Amino acid sequence: MSKAVIEVSGLHKVYEGAVPVKAVNGIDLTITEGEFTALKGPSGCGKTTLLNLLGGLDQPTSGSILIDGTDITGLSDNELIDFRLHNIGFVFQAYNLIPVLSATENVSFIMLLQDRPKEERLARAEQLLKAVGLAGKEDKRPGQLSGGQQQRVAVARALASKPKFVLADEPTANLDSESTAKLLDIMEQLNREENMTFVFATHDDRVIAKAKRVVSISDGQVISDSAK
Amino acid sequence: MLKLAWRNIWRNKGRSIITIAAVMFCVIFAVVLRSFQVGVWENMIHEIVGNNFGYLQIHEDGFWADQSLDRTMDLSAVNSEELLAVDGVDRLIPRMESFSLLYHGSNTKGSLVMGIDPAVELPGLQLDDILLEGRSFTRDDSVIVVSEGLAKYFNVGLGDTLLFMGQGYHGATAYGAFPIGGIARMTNPELNKQLVLMPFQKAQYMYNCTDRATTLVVAIDEEADYEVVGATLKGSGAEGLEILQWKELFPEIIQTIEVDMAGGRIFVTILYFIISFVLLGTVIMMVAERQREFGILVSIGMKKTKLAFVTLLENVMLIMGGAIVGMAVVKPVQFYFKYNPIDLSGQMKEAIEQYNFEPKLYTTTSFIINLNHGTIIFFIGVLVSLYAVVKIMKLNPIESMRS
Asked: How far apart are CA B97 and CA B327, in angstroms?
């Protein structure tokens, strides 16, 4: 049986205001190593909030999140940053690359934060960029790349730190069909060949079609969870 | 970290140039402002003290407090050789200074009479350089040179004779009649209104002070420090004499400078407040522009302390660059206005002349001014950069990435 990478129980996130909003309303979820999971649902259903909570970017109102056995809800701000650096890869909808860095530098930057030697950083960045089909584009800055290419750099960056899993928030939302297909093929291949765990928040049918497990969310709650 | 900061600076040329330019203009503005203030005083001291009265003067003990001809010094008793042997002393310039009532026709005026030897005098009293008309005099001449203002007052010209009446040594009557050989323009407005220059021996004779002098001006070498020279002189061959530095001779100048400088400091402090807000504006702009980048960096695992340090390092490098460029760029401006002062006119000219100052705005070329203001603005810049540090330490990555 595969090892659980993410274990969520009784997770709540309420945004206080004149009218409190229950963005996540009692979610229990377990994701095991090597899964290729899509969290689907309409806009505002809470999937991005859930992803932010899983990534330690936001703190839940209540409940627990165990990542590889560590309850990240009890970690301090600094510990969370450190935890993210070594355990979680992120792919954002808007790519979120550092505009002043080249593709290689964007990928290797996270390894620089991990204090890895320069040779190792450059070699891995080159290898990852090649794996996502960007050989020859190493020196290009984000502004010189298409949306699809930028998102592939973001995938390479997410994998650079050798994380336990990758969280991808609407990774195909800004991409055309061709770029989407290419990106999904790359992620599927990485999942298959390196047993990398991927969790997507998406409402893109193309992503959902590729996912091996689909968790449907509505009003902050899991309404269905099906494996293919 | 340094490399990272340097790369950020280099790859954000637009932002870097804006920050450097903001700091540079702040430094230029502060330095120019202060340079004019200090330069005016520096020039005035140089003009009045250096060129006319000397940085050091020797008198009979007690003369300066009680400026009577009865306290003139006996030149034959002064050990000139020992005084001249002091390091930094170039020459001793004897002067006979007193007041006389001057007559011409029905006009009278109390005037400052100065007996000098033009051959050894300070630059301000090098008659050939300041004469408007006529000629200078030699030791044996009997002609006098009057200041421009005095000539206008008496409505006299070359060849006209002025009558002198006053009191000489030990109560003797001092009188004389001297033809005008030249009319000179003194740079000091007060002297330009009332000064009469005559050959030193003639002045000694008129005031019944043969072989005596009121003052020995100590001309010092250009590179010599007058304070050091003055201290050395006090310990050598100066018994019965007083050796005074210009600050003791003209304390009112020091007081005026101090009052003006205090006003200037208030103005500069206000300027620093304005500069602080200008620099803060630049930092706020930078933080707002990079909010998303900061959010990304923290979300992928860069510690806030590390990010804050890199950002601070970037700002320190930019501010230092701006300060250095500002200090350097302003230098030609300082040199230009030192040698091409701004001539004041109208009411401002009259107001300044009332205080006996030359109505011209000079700058100083002293690099200390640049260094001081560059350093202060650098520290202000570093201080306002802490805004970025605070914002980073409080950063919420999700909100930042949404911005």
From this structure: 45
pTM: 0.74
A9: which 2 tokens? 């129980």
Tell whether the torsion through CA atoms of A205, A207, A209 and A212 is positive or negative: negative
CATH number (domain holding residue A204): 3.40.50.300
The sign of the torsion formed by the CA atoms of A135, A140, A142, A145 equals: negative
C-alpha R_g of chain B? 30
B7 neighbourhood in chain A, CB within 8 Å: 100-101
Beta-carbon contacts of B243 under 8 Å, excluding residues fewer than 6 positions away, are B56, B57, B58, B218, B230, B233, B234
Residues belonging to chain A: 228
The C-alpha atoms of residue A112 and residue A125 are separated, in whole angstroms, by 11
Percent of all residues in chain A with a pLDDT value above 70, rounded to a whole number: 100
> In what order do the strands lie in the sheet containing A36-40?
A88-91, A165-169, A197-202, A36-40, A213-218, A221-227
Pairing relationship of beta strands B195-199 and B144-147 according to DSSP bridges: antiparallel
Q: List beta partners, residue B59.
A: B242
* CB-based contact B296 A98, cutoff 8 Å: yes
Residue with tokens 């903001």: B22
Q: What is the mean pLDDT of chain B?
A: 90
The alpha carbon of B51 is separated from its chain's Cα centroid by a whole number of angstroms, namely: 13
CB-closest option in B4, B8, B301 to A85: B301
Q: What is the SS3 assignment for A41? A: coil
Contacts A109 to B, Cβ<8 Å: 300
Residue B126 pLDDT more than 90? no
Tell me the residue range of the domain where A107 lies: 4-227
Q: Among B299, B300, B310, which would you mutate to test the A interface (most chain A Cβ atoms within 10 Å of its Cβ)?
A: B300
Which of A81, A84, A169 best probes binding to B when mutated, by most B CB atoms within 10 angstroms? Answer: A81
The pair phi, psi for residue A100, each rounded to 5°, is: -85, -5
Distance between B15 CA and the closest CA of chain A, angstroms:
12
A81 touches chain B (CB under 8 A): yes
What distance in Å separates the CA atoms of residue A189 and residue A125, rounded to the nearest whole number?
18
CB burial of B146-172 (b: ≥16 within 10 Å; e: otherwise) equals bbbbbbebbebeeeeebebebbbbeee
Which residues on A lie below 8 Å from B397 (Cβ)?
A: 57
The DSSP code for B344 is: P
Q: Look at A136 and B238; give whichever has higher pLDDT.
A: A136
Per cent of chain B over pLDDT 90 is 58
Other CB atoms within 10 A of residue A12 CB: 16
Residue B191 is predicted with a pLDDT of 85
Q: What per-residue confidence (pLDDT) applies to A159?
A: 87
Confirm if A198 and A139 have CB atoms less than 8 A apart: no
- State how many domains chain A has: 1
Q: Which residue has the tokens 């072989």?
A: B211
